[in-house]
Specification:
single chain, 0% strand, mainly alpha
Length: 509
Amino acid sequence: MSDVTKKKKFALNMVTSFGSQVITICLGFIIPRLILTNFGSEVNGVLTSINQIFSYFYLLEAGVGIASLQAMYQPLAKEEHDSANRILTATNKYYHRTGMIYAGLLFVFAFVYAWYAKSSLSFWTIFFLVLTIGTPVAFSYLVQGAYRIFLEADGKVYVVSTITTVTQITSNVMKIAAIFLTHNIILVQAAFYLAPMIQPLVLVFYVKKKYKWCNAKHPDPDYKSISQKSSALVHQISGVIFANSDVLLLTFMTNYLVISVYATYNLIYDYAGRLLDSVCNSNVFGLAHMFHTDKTKFRRVFEYYETAYIMILFMYFTMIFLFTAPFIKLYTAGVTDVTYTDALLPMLFVLIRLLSNGKVPIQNVINFSEHFQQTKSHAILEMTVNLAASIVGIKLCGIYGCLLGTIAALLVRNSLAITYANRRLLSRSVWSTLKKWIVNFAAFLLIYRFLGSRIMEYGSYLELILRCIPYGIAVVLIYLLVNVCTQLQDFKNLYQDLGDWGLLKKLHR
């Protein structure tokens, strides 16, 4: 693949992923607000609980998605079509089997959840809510699973993002219309999940039309290339537990009102994380291809990629953190069945997001190396700490304890990943990564100390946005200053490479 093609894919990935996330976020904030005001916090809590529990069903992939993606990078980078088809076929067979198992478990879960749910909603209301939410996922496994992995490995995230965006817009418009036309929550959810049933068909059609050589029915499937799926599954389980255990534990140990509070704060930081990922991860395929074709160049690029990533991460989430409280005030205005404003929750949520997103560069190195087996123990330890600490934490101090348990697990996992990747895969000191964390966290505390107390309540979203601008400029300048002063060589290398790639010349025109 030529450098021009890679740059084009990177640009398209970034623009479409960013655009997709902006639209998803805008609609994603509108829908829960309408649910809260039209159906109440309990229904919002029930929907959040069901959606989070469904995330555990993704474990039925059994690590195939992660293992296949990493295995497919190399043959696509070297244009080895036959090898890519063999991996694709093996992946496709696993996804078909997963879809059948998923469909069967869906009905069992719908019955069990509806039977045991402690809610004022009827058994059949909850039963059909579960079915409407889960059916599109089963259909996706059966039709598109392997093809989505194929496109991501070839750097065409922009295709997946475009199709997803159109689907999201259609789904959310139908859901908003249903909210105003009916007070039946089942019909509202059914309207939302009609469009996702069409999405897999469109994606498969695109692959078959653009890749004439692509064949998901190769007579000799390459199961060996995805043999690390079992080890990858352990990492996948760890990721799912990290992302969803809080809601699951709160479901069984508290009530749906507490879950609604959690979901509202998490909505902000989850969407913010997705938006950042859409930009920063647009060239992951390029880094992966570089890792497999030129290790020396990769190590040089990774140094300033990690520096820039962590700096941008802290810039971004510092601003989100500073304005969380006034946003929550505006967003939940008029909702009186539970108190949403809280002084401590923004700090806990931002720490989780910094630690979670901050390990992405290092975790990418581990993924590119396919060291799933070697780091399996890291994932197991994270799961253990997360569940144990969160259960104890919830009993001691409710939602705060739940979040503190997640923070403890992330500290353990990040420490292990940073140590392993730096020493074993990058052949450098652990200090290379740690000093970037220390410098940026010190800047975060400094900003919180001097700017945090100055944030006031605002009467409208427009006023809040306008006040963000001067604070945003100050935050960006502070982080730039401390990072350039402490990582000057990384910025010099970045500037040099931008010049070599011709990007600076374009900016000067």
